[in-house]
Design brief:
The protein has 389 residues and is an alpha/beta fold. Helix content is 43%, strand content 14%. The protein has a 7-stranded mixed sheet with strand order 2-8-7-6-5-3-4, with helices on both faces. A two-stranded parallel sheet has the order 1-10. A two-stranded antiparallel sheet has the order 9-11. Helix 7 links the parallel strand 5 and strand 6. Helix 12 packs across helix 13. It is globular. The termini are far apart. The chain binds (2S)-2-hydroxybutanedioic acid. (2S)-2-hydroxybutanedioic acid (LMR) binds next to loops.
């Protein structure tokens, strides 16, 4: 009999729809298993590029000059924050933007969510579909969540939201669809936000993997130039292949630079009571790369390489899928950007793909395109066609 413990009634929470499936993949003993789940960049040889040459050289430099292990300030390394700010907002006057280093993009989302709940709004509208963790992060802080259909029906839905609603937008490489808005669509959206007094909250986890490092920042810069106050949650996990270093940033764009100090005190108090202050190493690497001309050039080429690999796999994969299943619509697959696409499979089909063919996709049949390669792509396409019939 189960002993009565304090914990016998704890809530049984479902496993994470991305990392939970990844864990299951790791336990699978079949030798032909294929992991299309977590969004990490994988090269053609099936290995992940966990140390970009630019990162390796920056680390060598850090070892030479010696790092110290003191606490960083509560909102992180100031130089790192300023360099990141420029990468996102450009070189103009950005004195009205408060920034803080965060633990990856997730803690940027969480700290902003805390702030929004305390100071700005009780509601947030998030795309449907969106990254699986968005909803959980916002639910944790007790904000009520509205979901707007993405992309079809988006404008209509958003135009009915109450003024002052915070709206989450993927600035580039929408996760999970891969479908991004065109320049004209962003312009239309900006007008809608202004007219209905909505507050943009940009998630920028993939800067550089859409159309280019500078190009991907243009939607945010466009909103900022037109006077919007907004939030940005940024991550370098993917663009620097620094997943485990948990390096990100948050930014809050304000109309008035005089408010930056008050904002700093407010956000610092949220960070201090959540994780005190961020870790040093990832920030040190990113800072050195961004401020050292040859390392920065190297990194920009590495980002170009990653983006090109995603784009070419997207083309090859969609072509092969359509050849095999000409009657099937693989929504947004050809014209998408970034790591991901959706296969549009049912849960039953996702389970069959895993159980019968040892192919693991994330929730909603999301595929990390870079996990495909010459050796496995035909088997993946063939298996998908078998579960779809
Ligand atoms: C993903 O969507 O696979 C990545 O962003 C990893 C994560 O944290 O979920």
């Amino acid at each position: 009999m189960q002993e009565d413990t304090l914990f016998s009634n704890i809530t049984d929470v479902p496993t994470d729809p991305i990392f939970g499936i990844n864990d299951r993949f790791l336990k699978d003993t079949r030798i032909n298993k294929i992991n299309l789940t977590v969004g990490i960049f994988i090269e053609e040889d099936g290995k992940s590029a966990l140390r970009l040459p630019s990162v390796r050289l920056a680390e060598e430099k850090i070892n030479q000059i010696g790092d110290n292990k003191n606490y960083l300030p509560i909102d992180g390394d100031l130089e790192y924050v300023e360099l990141t700010k420029k990468l996102i907002f450009g070189e103009g006057d950005i004195s009205n933007i408060y920034g803080a280093q965060t633990i990856g993009g997730t803690s940027a989302l969480r700290i902003i969510a805390d702030f929004v709940k305390n100071e700005v709004a009780e509601h947030i509208s998030i795309p449907d579909p969106t990254w699986e963790n968005h909803e959980n992060v916002f639910r944790r802080v007790g904000i009520t969540i509205d979901k707007y259909p993405y992309p079809e029906g988006m404008y209509d839905h958003l135009s009915k939201l109450p003024a002052g609603t915070v709206v989450l937008l993927h600035a580039m490489c929408h996760n999970p669809t891969g479908h991004d808005l065109t320049k004209d669509e962003w312009e239309k959206l900006e007008i809608l936000f202004r007219k209905h007094k909505l507050i943009p909250f940009f998630d920028t986890a993939y800067q550089g993997f859409g159309t280019g490092i500078q190009e991907d920042a243009l939607p945010i810069r466009y909103f900022v130039e037109r006077g919007h106050e907004c939030f940005v949650a940024h991550s370098f996990s993917k663009s620097f292949s620094l997943y485990g270093e948990r390096i990100g940033a948050l930014f809050i764009v304000m109309k008035s630079p005089e408010l930056v100090d008050r904002m700093r005190r407010n956000i610092r108090s949220l960070i201090r009571t959540t994780y005190s202050n961020p870790p040093r190493h990832g920030a040190h690497i990113v800072k050195l790369v961004l401020q050292t001309a040859n390392l920065r050039n190297m990194w920009e080429l590495e980002v170009d390489h990653a983006r090109n690999r995603m784009q070419s796999l997207r083309k090859i994969f969609s072509q092969k899928l359509r050849e095999k299943m000409p009657n099937r619509t693989f929504a947004y697959l050809d014209e998408g950007h970034g790591f991901f696409c959706l296969l549009g499979l049912t849960n039953g089909q996702i389970d069959r793909l895993r159980d019968e063919f040892a192919i693991y996709t994330a929730g909603r049949s999301r595929v990390n395109l870079t996990a495909l390669n010459n050796k496995n792509i035909d088997y993946v396409v063939e298996s998908i066609s078998k579960v779809i019939v």
